[in-house]
User: Fold Pyrroline-5-carboxylate reductase from Gulosibacter macacae.
Amino acid sequence: MLGTGNMNGAILAGLTRPGSALADPVRVTTRSQSSADALSQRPGVTAAALESNPDANREAVRGAGLVIVGVKPAMVPDLLDDIAADLEPGALVISIAAGLETKTIAAHLPAGIRVVRAMPNTPATLGLGVTAICAGPGADAEAMALAHEVFASVGQVVELPEADIPTMGALTGSGPAHVYLLIERMIEAGQALGLDAETATESVVQTFRGAVEMVVADPDAGPAELRRRVTSPNGTTERSIAVLEDAQLADLFTRSLRANVRRSEELAAGA
Ligand SMILES: NC(=O)C1=CN([C@@H]2O[C@H](COP(=O)(O)OP(=O)(O)OC[C@H]3O[C@@H](n4cnc5c(N)ncnc54)[C@H](O)[C@@H]3O)[C@@H](O)[C@H]2O)C=CC1
Ligand SMILES: O=C(O)[C@@H]1CCC=N1
Assistant:
């Protein structure tokens, strides 16, 4: 794993969490020695820092069958140019960078390197991630099976055409941030109505958790039916839902996701 920050770090945490059977040793790189020291505490993980060893990325990929690139999108091309000559022939390179298209990734790699693009999300850290994957140049069935296996060990995997990856970036890659924003705003609203911070926080978090678990536990009912069961005719929920629906939430979310996808397109163009 090259560039082990928030997202690659979450995947690594998921892969090495207690009870998950990580079959192969993992070499990871990061920029600072202090984060490399922290990462190397994980079982089966060897970490190297660029600030101590400028060759860390090149050394990490030597002999590796699978390389997951987790630096910021703008840094990916330079990183690939740096490691290109040291990659094993036929290695699988997975990029998790938002926006960056597989043709751009492949253009910075030698022929014969297999490319997969992935859009994971941070709940991978608990094994509860969602990762969308798509095949890039040279990605044969074996490469896709390997990508599937890695991300399946930290959550669910959805295989999609590349054109859908930006939408998944908006819906699931960025999705946890949208959920956290809703949690934050509900806590603030509880406080505005007089609850103390601790009570509001604990109650809202448990409400999200309980509500999500109910959707998971009863897929036949689905969220609309579960909402109906809470919303008594002429009761209290009806009033609060009416205020929320007044804000045209469906339209708001669609506009929000479109803005996210537009940024993916800018990143694809190198902006
Ligand atoms: N944060 C998220 O929830 C998600 C992020 N992504 C993608 O993951 C990638 C990383 O994002 P974050 O983890 O949020 O960023 P981050 O900044 O937390 O992590 C990047 C890491 O790369 C290290 N780094 C920088 N240059 C390096 C180099 N040349 N060699 C080795 N390490 C280097 C940094 O020290 C840092 O630890 C981005 O391309 C982003 O689009 C995709 C899905 C979700
Ligand atoms: O905000 C970003 O650009 C990255 C991609 C998806 C989540 N975080």
Q: What stands out?
A: Residues 98, 169, 173-174 surround A1CAB (ligand 2) (CB under 6 Å).
